[in-house]
Amino acid sequence: MKKEIVAAGFGGQGVLSMGKILAYAGLMDDLEVTWMPSYGPEQRGGTANVTVVLSDQPISSPVLDTYDTAVILNQQSLDKFESKIKPGGVLIYDPYGIHRKPTRTDITIYPVEAMEASIELKNAKTYNMIILGALLKVNPVVDIESVMRGLKKALPERHHHLLPANREAIMRGMELVKE
Amino acid sequence: MNIEDIKRSENKVYSKPELLNDTPMHYCPGCSHGVVHKLVAEVIKEMGQDNNTIAVAPVGCAVFAYKYIDVDWIEAAHGRAPAVATAAKRLNPERLVFTYQGDGDLAAIGTAETIHAANRGENITIIFINNAIYGMTGGQMAPTTLEGQKTATTPYGRRIDLNGYPLKISDLLAMLPGTCYVTRQTVHTPASVRKAKAAIRKAFENSMAGRGTSVVEVVSTCNSGWKMSPEKSNEWMVENMVPFYPLGDLKNNSEK
Amino acid sequence: MKGNEAIAHAAIRYGVDGYFGYPITPQSEVLETLEALMPWETTGMTVLQAESEVASINMVYGGAATGKAVMTSSSSPGISLMQEGMSYIAASELPALVINVMRGGPGLGTIHPSQSDYFQATKGGGHGDYHYIVLAPATVQEMADFVGLGFDLAFKYRTPALLLADGIVGQMMEKVVLPPQRPRRTPEQIKEQCPWAATGGSAGRKPNIITSLELDSAQMEKNNERFQRTYRLIEQNEVRYQEYFTDDAEYLLVAFGSIARICLKAIEDARARGIKIGLLRPITLWPYPYEAIARMADRVKGILVVELNAGQMIEDVRLAVEGRVPVRHYGRMGGIVPNPAEILDSFESQFNL
């Protein structure tokens, strides 16, 4: 098993930390993982992306040209990564703010209304967890309990009271995926 | 009377400090470095720190200080002695750690290291020889060269409009909360030598007691660089250097 | 964890006595992690944010001179500032560890990954005839492991070691098994291991003087000959490299650090299409695995050197190959990291496949 995933969006949307939690969850499930971010000032407001590889074998490159799954949260990222999804791969995207919809027909595309759900949940900070929930529904690479353990590790202890809200967001994300 | 009768211990009025070895010094006759070396060697021994000292030598005339005083030495790159001493002291807090630097080393190329070590309050002593000239490289302008003073690179005298002002770095260091003791001394008379020695002792005691950074500036002569006889150099220093670099304690929180 | 964080954890666990550094992207997490872990409360390790890279490297010099295990880390522009101090440390025969998490240059350049400090690292970036043992980690695990390896080699040969990483392996996260916690050496152990050190505890011995100055030319030549003898010994004993798919390889890629991993993925893709490429990854960049590359040169049709620079390590590969087979270069600069497909495209076009 090997999953090559890219997540991309605006800085501040939480793609890097979503990738981190996914990587931690992979570790909990005894997988090999790499997490390779774009870094620097672009994390703050520009476009940020992260490549996460989960595998039961040692991983060679943390830098990739094609992906099994792309999680896309803004138009620039969609323009950049749509063509880089392997045929038969998966595109998950939030239609919020997307004016040019994806056009590929050789991949499976899941629009996930995460921004709207996040407004409904009245918790903008768990937006990326809704996305993660959708990703896990489509791509159950790691166990949800491992994700929660990963989250617990990634969050400082003073934020542990937020764990239930994060779980709720993940569940909401799972529900949002329509076959 | 033969010579062996004279060499008896009861006739002895002076002996060289034990830590000062027999290596012939490279300093010019009349230079202040020799006297300050002697004082440092005496104070280390009198404080019982002779097997407990790490000294840091500069680049400048005192580059070979490590050849003359028998303690462990580290020869630093030009200006970096306070950084070297910072690590030596932090990693060996039980040791007496001091730097021995000239005006170019401390107040030009090493200004950043000097100010930051002092501002962190490193428990080190900085012995600062200020002779207002670059002695080793042949008498060029130093940051402390006086206005109007002739040097190899200010042949018509230091001009403020061209070269800026002489730097009173000890005054600057005294303003920093990390320093506990900043003093300015000379070694041109027996009385001033005694005062300078007491200052070095106070500084070393501060370092061992962990009171912060101590700075002992010694306003010095450089008869070769100034192109004067040693005697004339002392007079010139008293007439010109001392009014601009007034002697005494700029700061003394030694007992806090 | 991130490669930079792994360095901090590994340093504490190795029993390092002191870290002195100045923030610069993309390696600031080393100092940040150390400050957060507060090792002075546990192992007694000193951690200090210096006022500059110049001060940092001279603090390393001062600490190393007293026999302590000390280190610093920076990125390319900061490492340039350290070159004077690095020359002094080598010339004074002091063990120390310097880490360069390279970013693109020249000048202020970019904060993105690069390998353009290869010449500086392996050919002596400062003045004088000297070498650092240069280790090039490709994984977060190696970031952790090479801290210990670097110090072990540095103390074994009384010569400094340089860990030459890049922004990729510094910033990426992957699984890492940290080494067990070792105690810091006691003053007695330092005295035994480093009888030359200016520890300040000079009772019962002559004073120890750490200096690189020697105005007697005959003696200075002897000092240089001694350095060179050490370097020959290191060249004999410490060459490290790793080969992948070389048994049946018709072509060879040579790459170091994280780029070697991207090459490996390119090779996996090529082999799926029946093109037999192998990879040789130098782990020590000095001493360099000339012989291993020379052996491969007798067996393959061509060699492609892949680097994040305009062509630096290729000079060492050519020295090893001595013209026996074509040696080509694929380099990206300015912080651009090639993906596996781009490497393969370059390979195929340069060898007309």
Short précis:
Chain A has six helices and six strands, in the order βαβββαββαααα.
Description:
The complex is a heterotrimer of chains A (179), B (256) and C (353). Helix content of chain A is 36%, strand content 24%. Chain A has helices at 15-28, 75-81, 114-120, 127-138, 144-154, 163-176; strands at residues 2-10, 32-37, 47-55, 67-72, 85-93, 108-111. A 6-stranded mixed beta sheet of chain A has the order 2-3-1-4-5-6, sandwiched between helices. In chain A, α1 (15-28) crosses α4 and α4 packs across α6 (163-176). The two termini of chain A are 23 Å apart. The model of chain A has no long low-confidence stretch (mean pLDDT 91). The longest helix of chain B is centred in the last third of the chain and has 20 residues, at 190-209. Chain B is globular and about 65 Å long. The mean pLDDT of chain B is 95. The two termini of chain C are 40 Å apart. The longest helix of chain C is centred in the middle third of the chain and has 21 residues, at 217-237. Chain C has a 7-stranded mixed beta sheet with strand order 2-1-3-4-6-5-12, with helices on both faces. In chain C, strands 9-11-10-13-14 form a 5-stranded mixed beta sheet, with helices on both faces. Chain C folds into 2 domains: 3-187, 3-Layer(aba) Sandwich (Rossmann fold), CATH 3.40.50.970; 242-350, 3-Layer(aba) Sandwich (Rossmann fold). By secondary structure, chain C is of the alpha/beta class. The chains are: A alpha/beta (179), B alpha/beta (256), C alpha/beta (353).
Outline the secondary-structure elements.
The complex is a heterotrimer of chains A (179), B (256) and C (353).
Chain A (H helix, E strand, L loop, with lengths): L1 E9 L4 H14 L3 E6 L9 E9 L11 E6 L2 H7 L3 E9 L14 E4 L2 H7 L6 H12 L5 H11 L8 H14 L3
Parallel strand pairs in A: 1-4, 4-5, 5-6
Antiparallel strand pairs in A: 1-3, 2-3
Helix pairs in contact in A: 1-4, 1-5, 3-4, 4-6
Chain B lengths: L2 H4 L25 H15 L6 E5 L14 E4 L5 H11 L4 E7 H7 L1 H10 L4 E6 L29 H4 L5 H6 L4 E8 L3 H20 L3 E7 L3 H4 L3 H15 L3 E5 L4
Parallel strand pairs in B: 1-2, 1-3, 3-4, 4-6, 5-6
Antiparallel strand pairs in B: 5-7
Chain C lengths: L2 H12 L3 E4 L7 H9 L8 E4 L3 H13 L4 E5 L1 H16 L5 E6 L15 H5 L10 E3 L4 H18 L3 E6 H5 L1 E2 L12 H7 L15 E2 L6 H21 L3 E4 L6 E4 L3 H15 L4 E6 L1 E3 L3 H8 L4 E6 L6 H8 L5 E5 L8 H11 L3
Helix pairs in contact in C: 1-2, 1-6, 3-4, 10-13, 11-12
